[in-house]
Batch of 2 targets.
Target 1
Amino acid sequence: MTVVHENLEQADAKMGARSVSVFYGDKKAIDDVSIDIPTEYVTAFIGPSGCGKSTFLRSLNRMNDTIASARVEGEITLDGEDIYKSGMDVVQLRARVGMVFQKPNPFPKSIYENIAYGPKIHGLAEGKTELDEIVEQSLRRAGLWEEVKDRLDDSGTALSGGQQQRLCIARAIAVDPEVILMDEPCSALDPIATAKIEELIDELNGRYAIVIVTHSMQQAARVSQRTAFFHLGKMVEYGRTSDIFTNPLEQRTQDYITGRYG
Amino acid sequence: MSASVLFLLALGLGLAGWMAGRARAWAFRKDTSGGRLAALPNYHAWYVALWIAVPVLLFAVLWSVLSPSLVMQSVLSSPAASDLPAFGFQRDNMLREAHAVATGAAPAVFSDGAKPLIEPFREALARYNLIGLIAALLIAFASGTLAFLRLKPDFAARTKVERAVMALLLLASLVAILTTLGIVASLVFETIRFFGMVNPIDFLFGTHWNPDPMSGADNPDASRYGAIPLFWGTVFIGAIIAMVVAIPLGLMSAIYLTQYADPRLRSWVKPALEILAGVPTVVYGYFAALTVAPMIRDFAHMIGITSASSESALAAGVVMGVMIIPFVSSMADDSIAAVPSAMRDGSLAMGATRSETIKRVLIPAALPGIVAGIMLAVSRAIGETMIVVMAASTAANLSANPFDSMTTVTVQIVAMLTGEASTEHHTTLSAFALGFVLFLVTLALNFVALRVVRRFREAYE
C-alpha cells in the first residue's frame, strides 16, 4: 500500500490515477497506483531502474498504446474525464498532455519546422505570422530563442544535446498543453545542460502541470515539490519532496534515498 | 594432359609435405619436453605444404602456356616438317590434325600431308611432358626441403601461413575487379571501333534507327544509326511506365508493412513479396507477351484506340513495374524501419495521428533511402532484357503513346548480336556501343544511389 503523507496542501488535481495497473502481456509492470497530479507543483517520480515509473508516466498520455502487448487497468483522469474510456480521442489527449523523452528526439527538419510541426497538425495558427509568433514564443519559453533566432532554418539535429532537449521542450510547449510529462529528460545531458533544463522546469512550473521521472535524487530534490517513490511496480510513498528526502516514513524509501540500493 | 598431371602432382606432394611438416613439429614438441612451439603443428604442416604446392602450381600454369610452343618448335624443326606448305590455312590445318592424333583426341588424319608429322608430335609431346614432370619434381623437392629445414620450435609458421591466406583472399577479390575491368575494356574497344565507322554525334542524337545488316561492311549509313528512339523507348518503358507502377505500389506496401501490418501478417507478406523478386524474368516475359499485352490491346481497342499495337510499350512497362515492386518496397521498408522509433514516438506524443506521422516525419526522414531504392530499381529496369525482348517490339518508334510499339536498348543489343551479320560488321559493333552507353548510365545511377544511401546512414549514428 502506498504511504501518503498527511500534511499535503490541498490542490486541485489536474490528472488523477485511481488503482491503476499496467500489464505487458501477463507481466504486471505497475500495481495499483493512485495519485493526484496538481498544476501548482512539479511532481517527481523516483525509484530504481525497472520500478515502473516510466511505464506509469507513459500511461498518462496513452503512449503505451504504441506497444501492442501493453494493457492498462483502473482509471486515469484528465480534468475528471477518464482518458481510457471508449471514444476518447487519443490525438486530442496527447495535444493536452505533452511529453519530453529521455533522449532528445528532434525531427530531422529545421528548427522552425520542429516547433511549427505541432501547431500545424493541430491547426493552431491561421497564417504565417501567427505561426511565427507561436514559434518565437515557444522558443523563448524554452530559453532557446536567443541561441537559435538567427538560424531557424538550420537542422534541429545539428544543435547540441542540451539545445536539442530544450528544442523538444519548446516543441511540446508549442501546442499549448496542460500537462508536460518528462521521462528522464536530462539523463543524456552533461551537468551544464542539465542545469539549464532544471532552470527551465522551474520557470514552466505553475503554467503547466509537470511530471518528471528521474534517476537522480538530487534532481528530484532540486526541481520538484512533490515526490512519489516507486519500487517493484508499486508506489511506495508519496509526499512533499522535502519530507520524502528528510523524513521518509517507509524503510524502503529511506534505504533508496540513502543509497542503500538502486 | 600435362597440366592436369602437374596439378595433381602439386596436391599429392603438398599432402606429403603437410604430413612431413606436421611430424617434424610434433617431434619438436617431444624434444622440448612439453615446451610450447611458436605455432601449432598444423601451421608448420601448412607452411611446408604451401611451399611445395604453390611453386608447382605456378610452374604448371607457366608450363601449360609455354610447352605447346616448345612442342611446335621441335616439330617444325624436324625433317618431316620441311614438306609442309610454307604458310596459310592448309599448313595450320595439317599441324592441328597431326597434333590431335598424337594426343589421341582424333583417330586419324584427313590430309595425307599431316601423316608424317604425327610421329614427331608424339615424340615432342612425350619429351616435354617428361621434362615438365622432372622440373616440377625438382622444384617441389627444392622448395619443400628449404621450407622443411626452416622449421624450428620457435619458427613463427602461423604468421607466414596467415600471410599466405591473406594473399589468397586478395587474389579472390582481384578476380572480380579484374573481370569487371576486362568487361569494360572489351566494351570500350569495340565501341571505339564502332565510333570509327559511325560518328558518335549521329549515334547519340540521331532519331532514326534502322541498321541494315546486308549493307556493305565498310561504309555504314550513319543516318540509320540514330539511337534516340532506343534511348527514349528504354526510358519510357523502364523509367516511366515501370516506375509509375512500381513506386506507388512499392511505397504503399512498405508503409503498410512497417506501420500498420500485424507482425504475424508481416512475417507472411514480406517473404511473399520477396518471392516476386525471385521469379525468373523470362517467366515475366511470357506473362507480359501472352497475357498482359493482348489484354491491353483489347482494352485499347475497346476505348477506341485502334492503332494500339499488340507489342505495346505499356505491356512491357507494366510487367516490368510489377517485377520491380519488391526492390522499391524492400528498400523503402528498410529505410522506414531505420528511422529511430524515438522519431515516431516524438510525433505521436505531439498528438499527431499515425498518417500524419508517416507523411510528415517518417517518409521525409526515410526519403534518401527511398530515393536510392528507386534509383537502383530504375537502373535494374533499364538494364532488364528478357521482358522487353519477349514483350516489346523491335520497331524503333519515337512516340509518347504507350499503346505504340517501342523498342529498347537491350532489345536492340540482342537483335544486333543475334543477327546475320559477322562479328566485324557495323551492325554487330553497334550493339557494343549501345551496351557501353547502357553500362555508363546504370553505373552512374548505382553510384549516385549508393552515395545517397551512405549519407543517409550517417544521419542517425
Note: Chain A has a mean pLDDT of 91.
Target 2
Amino acid sequence: MNSFRKDWCWHLLTALVLVGMGYGLWVATGKVDYTWRWNRVPQYFVYHNEDAKRVPYDGRVVEIETAGDTTTVTVRDRFDEEETYRIDSDTLRVSENEDLFAGDHIGSVFNWQVGPLLHGLWVTLWISFVASIIGLVIGLMTGLCRIGRNVTLRQLSTLYVELIRGTPLLVQIFIVYFFFGTVLNIDRIAAGICALAIFAGAYVAEIIRAGIQSIPRGQMEAAKSLGMTTTQAMVHIILPQAFKRTLPPLAGQFISLIKDSSLVSVIAITDLTKSGREVITSTFATFEIWFVVALLYFLLTASLSQVIAWVERRLAISD
Amino acid sequence: MIKTIDLKKTFIGRGQTVHAVDGVSTHIKPGEVVVVIGPSGSGKSTYLRCLNGLEELTSGHIYIDGVDLAHRKTDLNKIRREVGMVFQQFNLFPHKTVIENLVLAQKVVRKRSTADAEKKARALLSKVGIAEKEQEYPIRLSGGQQQRVAIARALAMDPKVMLFDEPTSALDPEMVGEVLEVMKQLAREGMTMVVVTHEMGFAREVADRVLFMDHGKLVEEGTPEHFFTAPREERARLFLKQVL
C-alpha cells in the first residue's frame, strides 16, 4: 500500500513533466507565427474523390433514369450515337431533352480513395517486410558460414559483414541503385529492397552467429552422440534454441530496418517519408505532416514490438 | 566390442602440448562393465569421448564392432547411434519436453514412426522411474531426474554400448543414489558399459574390470577385488588412499 502511494506520486510527476514539455512546445510554436492546420491532414489518408462526367461532343439528353442513388443519363450526340453515363443521383445537373455543348457537366461519381500518406505507409510496410524476410535468409546463411569449417565461405562472409557494417546505408542504396541498378537493369523498388536486405543481412548474420555460439557445446555433443549429423543437430537442436535467444536483438534489427527504409525515398520510391514530403509541398503543413509521419512509423514499430513480445512469451514456456 | 590400440590424443594450446591420452590399449568385451577411475586431469574423460568420436584421435586405432573409428571413410554418425553417451552436465535439450527429448533422435536418426518412438520412450521413462514427468520441460526436473532422462534418451537409440562420463559428479549427494540404481539395473541386464566415475562404491559393486588412468596412461587394470585390495602400482595405491 505504501509503495503504491509512492509510485502514484511518481506517475503524477511523469505526467506533469510531459504536460510541461508539451506546453513549452506549444508556447514556442506560438512565437514563430505558425498556423496549425491539423484539419488538412485527414484528407491525405483517405479522401472523397469527385469524378466529374462531361459530354465530349454537343448533343441532347434523351433519357434520365433514376434508380435509388444512381442515375443513368443517356445522351444522343450530333453523330446520332447514344452514350450512357452513370452518376450519383444527387449530383444530376441536366434535365430531359436539354441541349448540351461539348464539355458540359452532367453529374459526378464520388468514391473513397487512398491518400498519399496511407499509400506511403503501405509501401514502407511491404518494402520493410520483404527486405526483412530476404535479410533474415541472407543473415542465416552468412551467420552459418561465419562459424562453418569452410575457409573460403568464412572469409567471404566476414568480408561481406565488415564491408556492409563499415559503410553508410545511404551510400549503399546509391551504389545498389545507380551501379547495380544500371548494370543489371533492376528497377528502383527492387534496388531499394535489395539494399535494405543486404544491409540487414549483415547485422542479422552477426546476431545469429552470436546466438549459435551462445548455445553450450554440450548440446551439439549430445545431439551427435545420438547419431545426428551436424545439419540435423543444427536444425533440431541448435537453431531453435539460438532463435529463442536471438529474438530480442533480431526484433531490434527489424525495427531498425523499418526506420532505415525511410532512406529509400532518396531513390524516388514513394514510401512514407517521400509521401510526407510530397504532401508538404502541396499543403505547407510542414510541422503537422512530419509529426504524423513520425507517429505512423511509431505505430509500425510498436506493433512489431508487440508481435515479438507475444512470440517471446510463447517460447518462454520451456524456461 | 571395443578395442583400442595405442590410443593417443594430444591437445595443443598456447604453445603447450598436453598428452591427454597417451597410448591406451585395451579390449572391452560384450556385456562387460568397465569403470575408469583416476585423479582429475588423468585423461579418463578424454579417453571416453574418443570412444564415440567426440574427440578426434591424434594417433592409434579404435575398433567398435570391428569398424575402425580412425579410418577416413568411417561414418561416425553411424557408429554413434550404436554408442550411447551420458554426460556429466546431462545436456538434455532444454527447448523440448522430456518425451520429445527421447523421441527426436529416434525419429530423425532411426527413422521410427512417432507412435513407435513414443511407445519406446514411455517404456524407458517408466524403466528409469519418471513416467509421470513426460510432458515437463527438463528445467523443471531435479538433477537426478534429468540424468535419468538422459540415460533413457541414450537407451532409446538401442545402443550396443553405453558410455558414462562422470554421470553423478554434477548431482546433489542425495540424488546420486537414484542414478546409480538405474546404472546398476542396466549392468544387471547385461549392457556393455564404460563408466568414468569417482563413485568407488559403484566401481567395487558393479564393475567387471577397473581401469586406473594417470597422466593419460593406463597405469593399472584388473578386477575390483584386485584393484581395491592389492593394487600393484604405487600411484594407484596413493590414489586409493586419498579417495577411500
Note: Chain A is about 65% helix and 15% strand.
